[in-house]
Amino acid sequence: GGVSIVTQELAAFAKYSYDGLGKRIRLTEIGSYANATFQLDVLLLFKQGFMYKINNKDRTCFKKHLMEDFHPLAIPNDASLVGQAVLGSTSVQGEGLLVNTWTGQMQLRKRNAKYLSTVTEFGCFPVNTLVSTDSKAWVLVSFYNNIMGIPDPQVFTPPTFCKGVQLEEEEEEDKHSFLYSLF
């Protein structure tokens, strides 16, 4: 599928693969942060507690501890239904998408975060999620081209040039790391 992430400082668009049971995510993204563009290929292996930053062009790989918890692409049991709506039109059959919007709070970066998530009525596919860890800043995550299942399980295997790479100790927190936990 695809995902876009927007904050006041960040705009990113990514192709993503998601394995909820295996707690694995692969993001290949391009974006802009603080007026600088970036490309990022990230493999998140939450069960193992590792994150790989992969540069296929240079055939380099960085392995780091994954500091965030895995959040499944699902509506939490304690969420409250805000309402149901149709995206698009109800005037002609097939021109609208029935969605449900839910709200609640979750732990994110060891803080309480408020969220507002919209999912399809049938299949419960994510459409978008708004997340705020304070009253001023919101993160908008929009999903598109969702795919049921895992078309290519190999995306969750680090490339061969990542074998034997040493674990890096980070002196500072990755500025994008909290975004990974929004899944």
TrEMBL record:
InterPro entries in the cross-refs: Ependymin
Of the GO CC terms on this record, one is:
extracellular region
Task: Cite a single GO MF annotation.
Answer: calcium ion binding
SMART domains annotated for this entry? EPEND
Q: Where is the signal peptide?
A: none
Q: Which GO terms describe its biological process?
A: cell-matrix adhesion
The family assignment reads: Belongs to the ependymin family.
What's the protein name?
Ependymin
Question: Organism source for this protein?
Answer: Oryzias sinensis
- Lineage of this protein's species? Eukaryota, Metazoa, Chordata, Craniata, Vertebrata
